[in-house]
From TrEMBL:
One of its GO terms (cellular component) is mitochondrion. It is an enzyme of class 6 (ligase). This is asparagine--tRNA ligase. Its EC number is 6.1.1.22. Residues 139-456 form the Aminoacyl-transfer RNA synthetases class-II family profile domain. GO terms for biological process: mitochondrial asparaginyl-tRNA aminoacylation. PANTHER family: ASPARAGINE--TRNA LIGASE, MITOCHONDRIAL-RELATED, ASPARTYL/LYSYL-TRNA SYNTHETASE. Belongs to the class-II aminoacyl-tRNA synthetase family. Keywords: Aminoacyl-tRNA synthetase, ATP-binding, Ligase, Nucleotide-binding, Protein biosynthesis. Pfam families: tRNA-synt_2, tRNA_anti-codon.
Length: 466
């Protein structure tokens, strides 16, 4: 059967007749002599207007009985071919009693109607919400972003790999693990096991075989943070490359890669972003403004943590941050990150070289940092209005230094990290990488305010599970 998307693809030379098109009724409008049905099939954000001239009473009765949400199958002729118009064609059907069949009815309480529904209301309808233009387009947009990311990375000779989800390691060392149990007991056949928080440790191992690799997998964090930027189950793009020893080479790579991804979507923006008008989202004009900011000829801002703290302290003296005083040695709080990216730079900003104790154990020590103020070769990428979207680092490649750090943090009490540490004894090389939170990136570009809507079935501290 034909899809609406395939009709749009043939827009300059559309077929005369459409043997069969299947979809769902979005809305029905009835005049005396003619009925209009908006049909959607999910293949693209456009609906197909079906025009039904009415010749007898039975037809009026039949059209009156159609309801939003019903699945239907239609045969007709393409008509009114005006390629330059927003509605470039319509499907005209004669004899609707024979050419339009309802394949699945809806209940009387079908909750979606023609009007725009609020996002919180849609979230309460996990089985139906994706049928709306707004959330359906968000699924298609996420798919387009994943595709653009793979294309960009494959062209840079990265190899996609499949790291495990079940693991015994806490990569980030933050203790935010979901523990695995089975009906026959705790863990993986009796061994302590968790859902992965990050694929990084396994990616490092594969990078030392392939030079460049990446993965896109679900990651799990038992964080209590129940905010519009946190999920318990989110997807992370992670990438690891060898022969890189400078964090600025890493930030240059991230910027170039993300610009290419955004650029490739920019060229198809009308196909990807619906024109919506409700307060749960940015308007299309605001979204374009956002994309333009990322694609601005001006390079993204780049600042060290130490310089950022100085700027934040100056600002705090004049006008204090509501919740946290900026202090060297402490993590940047969301209010600090947002002020830097939104107000100070009004640009994406890389913050590099954080204090060692703010970050994970595997990051490479900056050997030139002063004693007592040790920093590591890492970065966070902050987007205006969103905060952290990417985090990465150069990895410590010396066995002795990483071993000492793991000891200092008391992380290897029963040798659980030995498998990973041994990598530094077998042909070690400088390497680095990063992780990008897919839902944060997608939400930033789509303009939805809560990353819960960028994943089809969200899991979060307060959410339901089905
Ligand atoms: O900064 P994070 O914790 O870094 C790592 O896990 C590294 N091991 C990645 C690497 O270098 N391979 O997480 C990376 C990104 C964050 O910048 C954020 O975008 C996203 O993952 N993220 C979350 N997204 C949604 N919900 C959460 N609870 C998230 N936690 C992290
Ligand atoms: Mg981080």
């Amino acid at each position: 059967p034909t899809t609406i998307k395939s009709l749009y693809k043939q827009i300059s030379n559309p077929p005369q007749t459409v043997d069969q098109i299947n979809g769902w009724v979005k809305s029905v409008r009835l005049l005396k002599k003619v009925g209009f049905i908006d049909l959607q099939d999910g293949s693209c954000l456009n609906a197909l207007k079906v025009v039904v001239p009415i010749t007898q009473l039975e037809e009026t009765e039949f059209l009156k009985s159609l309801k939003t949400g019903q699945s239907v199958s239609v045969t007709g002729a393409l008509w009114n071919n005006t390629p330059q118009r927003e509605q470039p064609f319509e499907l005209k059907i004669a004899d609707p009693l024979n050419t339009l069949s309802v394949t699945g009815d809806v209940s009387n309480s079908y909750p979606l109607q023609k009007k725009a529904h609020s996002i919180p209301f849609l979230r309460s309808l996990p089985t139906l919400k994706h049928r709306t233009t707004y959330l359906g387009s968000l699924l298609r947009f996420r798919s387009a972003i994943e595709h653009a990311i793979s294309e960009t990375l494959e062209s840079d000779q990265f190899i996609k790999v499949a790291p495990p989800i079940l693991t015994s390691s806490d990569c980030e060392g933050a203790g935010e693990l979901f523990k695995v149990a089975s009906t026959s007991g705790d863990g993986y056949f009796g061994k302590p096991t968790f859902l992965t928080v990050s694929a990084q440790l396994h990616l490092e191992i594969m990078a030392l075989a392939l030079s460049r690799c990446y993965s896109l997998i679900p990651c799990f964090r038992a964080e209590k943070s129940d905010t519009n930027r946190h999920l318990s189950e989110f997807w992370m793009l992670e990438l690891e490359m060898c022969f890189i020893d400078d964090v600025h080479k890493l930030t240059t790579f991230v910027e170039s890669m993300l610009r290419r991804v955004v650029k490739s979507c920019y060229d198809r923006i009308d196909e990807l972003i619906p024109q919506v008008d409700f307060r749960d989202s940015l308007s299309k004009e605001e979204i374009i403004e956002r994309w333009n900011l990322l694609l601005s000829p001006k390079p993204w801002a780049n600042i060290t943590y130490t310089d950022a703290i100085e700027i934040l302290i100056e600002k705090h003296k004049k006008e204090p941050f509501p919740k946290y005083e900026p202090i060297w040695g402490e993590s940047l709080q969301t209010e600090h990150e947002k002020w830097l990216a939104d107000k100070y730079f009004n640009s994406p900003v890389f913050v590099t070289d954080y204090p060692r104790d703010c970050k994970a154990f595997y990051m490479k020590l900056n050997t030139d940092s002063p004693a007592g103020r040790e920093t590591v070769a890492c970065f966070d990428l902050l987007f205006p209005d969103m905060g952290e979207v990417v985090g990465g680092s150069i990895r410590e490649d010396s066995y002795q230094l990483i071993f000492d750090e793991v000891e200092r943090r008391n992380m290897n009490r029963s040798g659980e990290l030995d498998w990973y540490l041994s990598l530094r004894k077998e042909g070690t090389v400088s390497h680095g990488g990063f992780g990008l939170g897919l839902e944060r990136f997608v939400s930033y570009l789509y303009g939805n305010h809560n990353i819960r809507d960028a994943i089809p079935f969200h899991r979060s501290a307060s959410g339901n599970i089905n």
